[in-house]
């Protein structure tokens, strides 16, 4: 089995999650390529060296430009804030490296389009790229997609997506990069709203064709992380709600917020169709709920425990009923990416898929900004 030498840029929350995947993927899955955790890149030499030691990287560096063009690297894994995604990905693709990039793909539609074009060009030379919508790879979500494709719900009428967090409820919570538009692009919209837009399209196979949205920033000033006696402006949304329609005739609602007090990281996705419903809730992530009206007066949502070896990704893990957690989605993502590289196929979600989500984020911002279909009451 040959190896793929990985360079990862960034070592915060996502860097730790991706490291967990690179460390374990080949120990559980037959991927045809063993990842070698070659080099971890960060801005601060000391902190990067500490992270490299903790997370299991062979060496560390501070200059991503030197690393992504190095002959000793095959895969570049981008786990930085959104403002650097485009620059790093374009340089890595130009150097012929396979690229895995965290979501949302970029901070702007223009950047995302450039990245998608570059990825399509690079694919002609066998260079693979993928965007990290990792929740697709939760087994219950993958099973939901399979069941919808098999006709388990019939004609889809409603798609209801919610991503609820509460880590900003406290106004004293600091002004981290995720609250700055120049670093993050947008707030709840791009950070977590992007996930539910992706999941809605992924599970149903339908495309969102139009949106009407509202966004809100509830706390507009927050203490600076390095000097809490001073404050700075929050320049992104705290919450977003959107109505949407799909090319398959479904009516959708989406809600993404960091102010849902008590909801720590709750992702909900429900699809209602002419012949049934499917519902997923990340807080109970090993379960998929299915309602089949043909059960007559014994109908009711039943809980499918998605821990059988026949379910997506599960056979590689534990016996039935033992369950998986948050980090397994990242392992599955690494598995699918490495498999595509080894087989010479194009992985999904592609940068083109990531750019399509970026267009949706842009459309939601535009709709929220123009208030076009909002009817005010006295
Ligand atoms: C922060 O809100 C965050 O880490 C997102 O960036 C991730 O995509 C999500 O999985 C968990 O929350």
Give an account of the 3D structure.
Keywords: Oxidoreductase. InterPro entries: Gfo/Idh/MocA-like_OxRdtase_N (IPR000683), Gfo/Idh/MocA_oxidrdct_glycsds (IPR050463), GFO_IDH_MocA-like_dom (IPR055170), NAD(P)-bd_dom_sf (IPR036291). GO terms for molecular function: nucleotide binding; oxidoreductase activity. It comes from Candidatus Avipropionibacterium avicola. The structure is a single chain. The chain is of the alpha/beta class. It has ten helices and 16 strands. The chain has helices at residues 13-28, 45-55, 64-68, 85-94, 109-123, 139-149, 181-184, 188-204, 328-343, 351-370; strands spanning 2-9, 33-41, 59-61, 75-78, 98-102, 129-132, 156-165, 208-216, 221-223, 231-233, 239-246, 251-257, 265-273, 276-281, 287-291, 302-305. Strand 9 (221-223) and strand 10 form a beta hairpin. Helix 5 runs antiparallel to helix 10. Alpha-L-sorbopyranose is lined by residues 13, 165, 191-192, 265.
Largest sheet: 8 strands, mixed
Secondary structure category: alpha/beta
Helix content: 25-40%
Rounded mean pLDDT is: 97
Number of helices: 10
Bound chemical compounds: alpha-L-sorbopyranose
């Amino acid at each position: 089995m040959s190896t793929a030498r990985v360079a990862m840029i960034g070592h915060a929350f996502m860097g730790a999650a991706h490291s967990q995947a690179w460390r374990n993927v080949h120990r559980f899955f037959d991927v045809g390529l063993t990842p070698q955790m070659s080099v971890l890149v960060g801005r601060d030499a000391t902190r990067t060296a500490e992270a490299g030691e903790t997370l299991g990287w062979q060496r560390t560096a501070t200059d991503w430009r030197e690393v992504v063009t190095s002959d000793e690297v095959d895969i570049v894994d981008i786990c930085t804030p959104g403002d650097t995604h485009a620059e790093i990905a374009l340089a890595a693709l130009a150097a012929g490296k396979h690229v895995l990039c965290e979501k949302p793909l970029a901070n702007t539609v223009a950047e995302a389009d450039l990245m998608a074009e570059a990825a399509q060009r690079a694919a002609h030379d066998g260079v693979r790229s993928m965007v990290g919508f990792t929740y697709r790879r939760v087994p219950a979500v993958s099973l939901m997609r399979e069941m919808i494709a098999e006709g388990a719900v019939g004609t889809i009428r409603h798609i209801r997506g919610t991503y609820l967090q509460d880590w900003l409820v406290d106004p004293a919570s600091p002004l981290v990069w995720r609250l700055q538009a120049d670093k993050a692009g947008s707030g709840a919209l791009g950070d977590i709203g992007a996930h539910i837009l992706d999941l809605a399209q992924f599970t149903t196979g339908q495309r969102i064709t139009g949106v009407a949205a509202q966004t809100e920033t509830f706390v507009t000033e927050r203490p600076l992380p390095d000097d809490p006696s001073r404050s700075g402006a929050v320049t992104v949304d705290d919450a977003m709600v959107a109505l949407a329609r799909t090319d398959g005739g479904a009516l959708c609602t989406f809600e993404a917020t960091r102010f849902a007090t008590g909801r720590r990281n709750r992702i909900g996705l429900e699809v209602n169709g002419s012949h049934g419903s499917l519902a997923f809730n990340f807080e109970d992530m090993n379960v998929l709920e299915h309602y089949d009206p043909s059960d007559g007066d014994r109908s009711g949502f039943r809980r499918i425990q998605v821990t059988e070896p026949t379910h997506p990704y599960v056979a590689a893990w534990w016996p039935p009923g033992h369950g998986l957690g948050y980090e397994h989605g990242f392992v599955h993502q690494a598995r699918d990416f490495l498999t595509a590289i080894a087989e010479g196929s194009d992985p999904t979600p592609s940068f083109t898929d990531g750019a399509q989500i970026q267009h949706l984020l842009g459309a939601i911002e535009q709709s929220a900004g123009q208030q076009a279909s909002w009817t005010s009451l006295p």
